[in-house]
Specification:
The protein is mainly alpha-helical and about 70 residues long. It is about 40% helix and about 5% strand. The radius of gyration is 12 Å and the shape is globular.
Length: about 70
Amino acid sequence: LQLTPFDPEMLLQQKVELWPDYEDGLQHACARSGFCDVLITTNSTDFFASELPVIDPLNFVLQYGL
């Protein structure tokens, strides 16, 4: 787990029209700003426009054994 600083410039680079839910767009922007490898969420369908791989918590644990 890491704390990710938010780079406001990253938000400006987001394609806002792809994110009907503003909070999902912010989470994606934070993940990209923090150079995350994957997004872990229970509602992966909301992240259809993600440039990062999206996985649910159970499958993350099963796949990476953490």
